[in-house]
Amino acid sequence: MAQIGSWFSRVFSADATRGLSGDSDFLAGEGGSFYASRLRLHTSEGDPVADPLLLWDPSRARKQRFGLHAHLLADRGDGVARFTDILVVLAAEDWDRAVSEGGQASLDRVRDVLTAEVMQFCVQHSFNPIFPDRPFGISLVRDGAPQLHGHRIGLIAGQFVTGLLPNYYRGPIETSSPTLAVHLNLPGQWEGYRQVGVVHGDQFHYTLGSHWLDSFRNAAFPGPALYQLQQQPDGSLVHVVNPDFQDQYEVGTVRTSDGPAVLAIAARNGGTPVAWIVLAVASRKVPAHQAAAEQGPTPRSRRRDGSSDVSSTSRSRSSPRTRPPPDADVPTTPASSPGVVPPAMATQPLPPEPVASKARTAAGRESDPASGPPVPAPVAPTAREAPAARSASVQIAGEAPSSKPGAWQRTIVPEAIEERIFTLKERGALLQRVHFAQFMEGYDVFVSRTGQLGTAIPDPVAIFQVREDRVFFLAQVEGVRLAGRPLQPDRLIPLRGVVEIEAGGQTFEYRELAGVPAEGWPFLGEIRRPASSAYMVFGGSYRIGRDRKCKVRLPDEPHNDNIVWRMDLDEGDVIRSRAGDIPKSRFYNDSIMVASEHAEIDLTGEPILRNIARHCFSYVRRGSEVFPLFPSRGEPGEQGVVLFPGDEVLVGNNLFEVSFPPAETQREEAPAPEPRDEGEPGIRLRLPGRATASRPEEEPPAAHGLGEAGPAPERPPSKQELDSILGTDAPPPGGITGPRGDVVVVEEAACRLELSRPARLLQVGWMVAGDQVVGNHLGVGIAVPELRIVPGQSFRPRDYAGLQVRGPRGSAWLLDRVEARLKIPDETVSHTEELEGLVLEIDRRDPDGVVDFTVVLRLLLEPWLPDPRARLLALDSEDRLVASLFTLGMPLKVGRALTLGPIRCRGTFDGHDLQISDHLDSYALPDGTFRPFLHRSGDGLPRTVPEDGSPIRVAPGDHLVAGNAVFRFLVD
After folding, report:
1. What share of the chain is helix, strand, coil (3-state, %, to 5)?
2. In angstroms, rounded to a whole number, what is the distance separating the alpha carbons of residues 122 and 372?
3. CB-based burial label for 770 (10 Å; 0-12, 13-18, 19+)
């Protein structure tokens, strides 16, 4: 038997995962992980038939790598192919145009160009076929052709699909010999056995399933590639149930009353079989030319039907050992079979019909479909023959259907894969917060017209926008739906909770992840969609990361056009740093969020996930519990946790689900860790083992200089040695805000009372001189309150804009492009040194994240201000919702405590004037000086409030200046 490691490396080697950036060339919507990662969608900007090199490399003028060349590069593995032939599916429009304009010759030219490129690729990269006597063949197929069982992918002009599939067998060539005839009984579909295919000696993989690419396809199978038979170059045969279904189905062997061994695909634990299989040795004496005729058209066939395919094989000298003489004993398909099902792409599901019915062979003779071939000599030396089959430990319910006496006198039972298989199934992509807010506003993730998700997709139909710690969704075209409702294009919608999104013909499920109380938690949301699986055999350790050496390879696409840079960094290719200039090209989603070697799965015992990234966390989610795995650079927490079936693994921007069969012996249940924090409802954080719950304050986070404190680690010398860009030093923020404090919040219920009182102190603006930051929290000089509409509504500190005023000169710059806009006078800008007509608009949102109203602030020159170099940032209070944020209502003849900027005092409205008292404690400072507190009566100049603390009277229309806050007293 072939070594198990070799077997898995050939068929179930981990393909590149999709994450956020690696989805753009995957064929979305094709069910089954066996096929999802082996089909790639490509888009050329020209006519790929007129210029066949566009099929080889359509991205020659772009940064992205697409085309057959890129697909081969990604799949070259250890230098031995995991497929025998190459499939290329062309858009129907391109195919039909080529046939109408140039006929078969135009398609032949395409095939010849690709064949030459593939041969050159093999030489340059030492890339070899599985079977030395069978060079790679290339098939061109029209989208929706019968060879695809009529399946239409939906390609538009310029698009094409490449397939590097283990089970795609274009057909026998001159040196091919049939090895096995596959006979099948599908309960409820037909009686007895039917021959549904032939496995040749140079055929690597054969599948039975429900997918349009399976070697034999029938809807009765519960999944794609359910049963898989593989043949190694030494002739050994192994078979397995698709690991995606290993927890539901298994293969067993039974003996029938007339002798042959029969395989059964059945539900686990004695379930009813879904299929009975007999693998019969195929052999009989026929002239070579007759054997070829019975196999159907040769690879160089030329059908001019638009639905046919064009096949070719890279020419090479055939081995004398494998070319049979004209009248040799050639193993082939029996002439009495009901017609040989053509190779993989030409396979058609056989219609259910009684076993006694007649079918016509390729030679035109009628035969009994239940009859079989004469006795042959065994062809596969290491495959076992019945009755020497193992006594199956799998219990099969029911009795296998019997065949006619003597139908099969030699049958084969392949070796079963009995090792435990660990499956890591990708469930979706993760959106992380913006780590480097000092020079990044955020990033975008696009949805293509065919439902791909990626960071480099032209002309998207929708966009996920991440800005700081919020996620928005934006439809670009009609037809996009959110929670079942159509979206208006260009309307920005905040994403909250769990919501279903329909875009590009695909359905995504978005789940909000912000607020999980896990140590180092970076995630804002997850986008769930079907993807591929990675399979690992118990007994080894396997790494997960961006490095090519990792078993589970995460995307590493160096595209950063989707990053929204801060306006002051839009120009230029570098970012200034104390350690030197850092190229912007080093900053892209994958380098920021994913380590080169991020995590490790240890399968030497029961599965354990370990975090090996120096600067990044990994997480395990088990139901409502979250287990953080700390970075390996000396963090005090645990870095490993035992995995259980159904656990979800969060690594970088990839979300996986774990599955594996139980061990033969009952394992000891791992003790449940103690809860650390209940956190938000429905989410519990648990730390595995003895992990401590907190990080010491003196231990610096990785991203120092990018909004976090502590000394920076040494700058990595090259991209190849990067763990993650989170270990990179970068410049400190250019803003002038202090430490962020509590968000200033006004309750909506209180606003109604304030507005309805007979007299009011309305804050009309702020006196601005020098440098100020406008935000919503106590850490800034100008705080614009939030309006809390419902109890529990929470807000995060935000800095909206910076202002600098030096008399007639100054400048303004935008700090938050999501919630604020800077205009001068009607033009939206991000930075200006023009102060005349400057307007700052700040949005206020309802609990659903929709803009409720906008606070408008205007920078005005007011000669009466006490500082002659200052300007007034005036509030537009015509909107009562805006005024409610800045109004202090005065009850009649009842005093109330007031806070006016830095001044705490008491105010009493007597029906005409407002009396201010009890202000001396906050007015006078311990050093004998006073805080700014002035009273402007009518149109006069402001005067300081009496420094002896005596009360002052404020008439309607008067102003008070406390600190930099300016108020006006109003009476109805």
Report:
1. 10, 35, 55
2. 41
3. middle
Residue 511 Cα distances to 29, 428, 498, angstroms = 20, 11, 4
**Residue whose entry in the numeric block shows the structure tokens 């081969």:** 72
Q: DSSP label at 754?
A: H
Give CA–CA dist 97/93, Å, rounded: 6
Helical (H) or strand (E) element with 231? strand 227-231
- Residue 119 buriedness (CB in 10 A; 0-12 / 13-18 / 19+): middle
Percent of the chain past pLDDT 70, that is, above it, reads 74
**pLDDT score of 580:** 66
Nearest by Cα to 423 from 266, 241, 548, 269: 241
Q: Residue written as tokens 């799965």?
A: 601
pLDDT digits (tens, 9 = 90+) for 396-420: 666 777 766 556 667 777 777 667 7
Q: Which amino acid is at 349?
A: P
Omega cis (within 30) before 489: no
* Whether residue 641 has pLDDT greater than 60: yes
Tokens of 629: 């795995």
CA distance 263 to 312: 35
Q: Is the pLDDT reported for residue 11 higher than 70?
A: no
Name the residue with tokens 């100054």: 810
pLDDT of 384 reads 41
How far is 295 from 315, CA to CA, in rounded Å? 20
Give pLDDT, residue 486: 94
Kindly report each contact of residues 578-586 with a partner whose C-beta sits within 8 Å and lies 24 or more positions away, as own/partner: 578/705, 578/712, 578/729, 578/731, 579/712, 579/715, 579/729, 580/715, 582/715, 582/728, 582/729, 582/730, 584/560, 585/558, 585/560, 586/719, 586/722, 586/725, 586/728
CA dihedral 105, 107, 110, 115 (to 10 degrees): -90
Contact 783, 741 (CB under 8 A): no
Residue from 953, 957, 961, 906 nearest 931 by CA: 961
List the one residue out of 465, 424, 431 whose CA is nearest residue 446.
465
Each residue's pLDDT tens digit, 268-283: 777 788 999 988 887 5
Q: Chain-centre distance of CA 47, in angstroms? A: 30
pLDDT tens readout for residues 789-839: 888 787 888 889 999 998 888 999 888 877 899 998 878 888 888 899 999
Radius of gyration of the chain (CA): 36
CA torsion, points 225, 231, 233, 236, in degrees to nearest 10?
150
- pLDDT bracket for residue 252 (50, 70, 90): confident
Structure tokens at 859: 């920078």
Q: Could you tell me the sign of the dihedral formed by the alpha carbons of 738, 740, 741, 742, in that order?
A: positive
Please report the pLDDT score of residue 25 as a whole number.
64
The answer to whether 288 touches 328, Cβ cutoff 8 Å, is yes
- The answer to whether 284 and 415 are in contact (CB under 8 A) is no
Nearest alpha carbon to residue 410 among 369, 367, 379, 447? 379
Distance of CA 101 to the CA centre of its chain: 41
Per-residue pLDDT of 896-918, as tens digits, reads 999 999 999 999 999 999 999 99
pLDDT tens-place string over residues 454-477: 898 888 999 999 998 899 999 999
pTM higher than 0.70 for the full model?
no
CA separation for the pair 934, 905 (Å, rounded): 13
3-state secondary structure 256-294: CCCCCEEEEEEECCCCCEEEEEEEEECCCCCCHHHHHHH
Q: At residue 760, what are phi and psi to the nearest 5 degrees?
A: -150, 145
